[in-house]
């Protein structure tokens, strides 16, 4: 399916559809409104939401003829009255701000000119244990402790180079937890923060057998409720013939467990993303991800750019749940088999995590759009399926959720501008609607984006809401923060009406 969106003179849209193969994901990105714009010209770009690639007008016409396309609309290339916004500008076009109470005011209060210093290294006391947000206190059955600290919600994210990511650094790794055996003998404590050993084939070993899921010190979360792949997120059979120099990988189905010849995908805690995937793709355009189980039954690292398993997101984004029941939001295992199984569990606002800390929001992993390039060359963003309240992760975060989750949200950071793009879009595979509303709030520049009463709207601040049947996108200023607010409330502020 095709979506068309417009690139402004200075922005490459950050929320690009993932290059998924078994279903079609669409993140709807729109040009960012700059104060006092002067309209110059109209530019329309067609993007294939399955591959993430630009499509010519001729191919777009053919796709329209086959009813596989949707036209979101045309947008304009803009300049400000003071001149065209420069991509090389080191400052955001509006002062970035911390988030005001999201639904009390549609525009946040400005910050002072000097932002608080960012935290470069999470401490053991501040960083959440790896498992995701708990649903323990909401009456939803969950067997894993899920707590997430609020302390990272006000961090200003560091600029990340638009070039190839640097080698993952120790300070970017989740706080180390020491795992011990049943005897509690400290001499057996495991630490995988040291450089991994190297197999005789030259690939680094994780130091674990394929039958051992990586311990919490890696920042991983075991998905124990998955019948076919648990605790792994994805199990792809690439056979023992695989090596990192292959130009393509012939997948021969899935694996029943993490066995020799399999790529074993895993999940990271909320706010962090997986770093291990091979440098080549499937011969049929499949994405492939995870650790490789070698012939000796040992787990090998597959991505030479990282010597850790999880990477903190480039954007400062969270989910805030203002209702009385837990909400399960599930990310696709990508690269991997693309199942919707990686959870971000949003506790009710004011609820308590299993650690005893009060929840203020669940971190959303928000990568640079160059973090992973799809087999078709498309840039990617994180992609989440949103479920109705009260559905625990055991029922929500499973492969079948793409048939039942009413809406999809997306998050990504443009590598050139470091503007964060957040989107809300319908799940075309179902006619169901959420029984609550979703707003994107925070340091929004340009149009606002929301889902109210089962419909999508955007607002340019004139007091009117414009319907957007195919979803909408909001831009968050460089260095700012954004929040997906889940609520029963229907208004952002007085004067806004659908």
UniProtKB/TrEMBL annotation:
A biological process term (GO) from this entry: fungal-type cell wall organization
Cell location: Secreted, Cell wall
Full protein name: SUN domain-containing protein
Coiled-coil stretches: none
Keyword Cell wall biogenesis/degradation (UniProt): yes
GO molecular function per UniProt: hydrolase activity, acting on glycosyl bonds
Keyword Disulfide bond: no
Renumbered residue ranges of the record's region Disordered: 103-203
Organism: Ophiocordyceps polyrhachis-furcata BCC 54312
Record-stated family: Belongs to the SUN family.
Domain of life: Eukaryota
Composition bias type Low complexity, residue spans: 103-112
Regions of compositional bias (Acidic residues) in chain numbering: 143-153
Keywords, alphabetical: Carbohydrate metabolism, Cell wall, Cell wall biogenesis/degradation, Glycosidase, Hydrolase, Polysaccharide degradation, Secreted, Signal
Cross-referenced InterPro entries: Beta-Glucosidase_SUN, SUN
CC per GO annotation: cell surface; fungal-type cell wall
Comp. bias regions, Basic and acidic residues: 156-183
């Amino acid at each position: 399916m095709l979506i068309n969106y417009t690139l402004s003179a200075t922005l490459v849209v950050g929320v690009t559809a993932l290059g998924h193969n078994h279903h079609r994901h669409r993140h709807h990105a729109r040009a960012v409104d700059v104060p006092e714009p002067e309209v110059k010209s109209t530019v329309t770009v067609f993007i294939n939401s399955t591959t993430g690639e630009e499509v010519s007008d001729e191919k777009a016409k053919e796709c329209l003829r086959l009813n596989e396309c949707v036209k979101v609309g045309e947008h304009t290339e803009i300049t400000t009255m003071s001149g065209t916004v420069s991509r090389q500008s080191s400052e955001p076009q509006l002062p970035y701000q911390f988030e005001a109470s999201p639904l009390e005011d549609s525009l946040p209060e400005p910050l002072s000119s000097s932002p608080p210093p960012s935290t470069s290294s999470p401490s053991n006391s501040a960083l959440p244990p790896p498992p995701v947000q708990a649903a323990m206190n909401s009456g939803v059955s969950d067997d894993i402790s899920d707590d997430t600290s609020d302390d990272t919600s006000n961090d200003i994210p560091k600029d990340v180079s638009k070039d190839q990511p640097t080698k993952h650094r120790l300070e970017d790794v989740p706080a180390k937890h020491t795992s011990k055996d049943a005897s509690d003998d400290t001499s057996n404590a495991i630490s995988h923060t040291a450089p991994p050993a190297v197999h005789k084939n030259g690939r680094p070993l994780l130091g674990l057998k394929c039958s051992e899921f990586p311990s919490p010190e890696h920042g991983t979360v075991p998905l124990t409720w998955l019948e076919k792949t648990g605790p792994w997120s994805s199990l792809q059979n690439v056979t023992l013939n695989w090596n990192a120099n292959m130009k393509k990988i012939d997948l021969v189905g899935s694996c029943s467990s993490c066995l020799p010849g399999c790529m074993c995908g895993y999940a990271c805690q909320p706010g962090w993303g997986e770093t291990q995937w091979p440098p080549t793709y499937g011969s049929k355009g499949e994405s492939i991800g995870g650790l490789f189980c070698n012939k000796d039954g040992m787990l090998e690292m597959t991505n030479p750019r990282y010597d850790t398993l999880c990477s903190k997101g480039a954007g400062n984004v969270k989910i805030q749940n203002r209702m009385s029941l837990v909400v399960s939001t599930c990310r696709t295992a990508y690269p991997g088999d693309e199942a919707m199984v990686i959870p971000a569990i949003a506790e009710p606002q004011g609820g308590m995590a299993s650690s005893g800390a009060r929840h203020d929001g669940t971190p959303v992993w928000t990568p640079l759009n160059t973090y992973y390039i799809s087999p078709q060359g498309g840039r990617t963003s994180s992609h989440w399926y949103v479920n109705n309240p009260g559905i625990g992760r055991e029922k929500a975060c499973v492969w079948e959720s793409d048939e039942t989750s009413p809406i999809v949200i997306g998050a990504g950071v443009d590598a050139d501008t470091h503007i964060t793009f957040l989107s809300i879009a319908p799940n075309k595979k179902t006619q169901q609607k959420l029984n609550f509303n979703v707003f994107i709030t925070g340091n929004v520049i340009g149009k606002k984006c929301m889902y109210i009463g089962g419909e999508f709207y955007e607002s340019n601040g004139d007091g009117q809401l414009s319907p957007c049947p195919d979803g909408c996108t909001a831009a968050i200023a460089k260095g700012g923060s954004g929040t997906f607010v889940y609520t029963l409330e229907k208004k952002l502020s007085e004067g806004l009406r659908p």
